[in-house]
UniProtKB/TrEMBL annotation:
UniProt main location, coarse: membrane
UniProt-listed Gene3D superfamilies: 1.10.287.3610
Its membrane topology: Multi-pass membrane protein
UniProt keyword Cell inner membrane present: yes
Residues engaged in binding a divalent metal cation: E34, E82
Gene source species: Arenimonas malthae CC-JY-1
Reaction(s) catalysed by this chain's protein: a 1,2-diacyl-sn-glycerol + ATP = a 1,2-diacyl-sn-glycero-3-phosphate + ADP + H(+)
Active site annotation, chain numbering: E75
Name used for this protein in its record: Diacylglycerol kinase
Sample GO molecular function, one term: ATP binding
Record keywords: ATP-binding, Cell inner membrane, Cell membrane, Kinase, Lipid biosynthesis, Lipid metabolism, Magnesium, Membrane, Metal-binding, Nucleotide-binding, Phospholipid biosynthesis, Phospholipid metabolism, Transferase, Transmembrane, Transmembrane helix
A Pfam family assignment: DAGK_prokar
């Protein structure tokens, strides 16, 4: 947080710990209410070790594992958008529907990025 002089307040270990706890609350909330997130975590737990094993070097390993983390990040953000839209009201609104569709599209694009990276890294080796 910046003060009036434009400098940032120092981060105390307590503030860093509190930020970590809030992040864990967010992950727990996403886990509790989003079955898609749970499925993506399960896929990550299978595919990340596989990607680490199949990657020939650090760059390939990063290209196989990082997009999997990207899917989880996008799913958490999509869940946050959905929660805000649902909080605003249950009635149908064009903009609310558009926001939810855009969040879903972001998850889809993250999934396609996984397929693209895995295909480009492993495709030439195995096909």
């Amino acid at each position: 947080m910046a003060d009036s002089s434009g400098t940032h307040a120092p981060r105390s270990p307590f503030r860093v710990w509190q930020a970590f706890l809030w992040s864990m609350q967010g992950l727990r909330a996403t886990w509790d209410v989003e079955s898609a997130f749970r499925l993506e975590v399960y896929l990550f737990l299978v595919l990340a070790p596989l990607g680490l094993w199949l990657g020939a070097d650090g760059v390939e390993r990063a290209l196989l594992v990082a997009p999997l983390l990207g899917v989880l990040v996008v799913e958490v953000l999509n869940s946050a958008v959905e929660a805000v839209v649902d909080r605003w009201g249950p009635e149908h609104h064009e903009l609310a529907g558009r926001a939810k569709d855009m969040g879903s599209a972001a998850v889809f694009l993250a999934d396609m990025n996984v397929l693209l990276c895995w295909g480009l890294v492993l495709g030439p080796r195995y096909f």
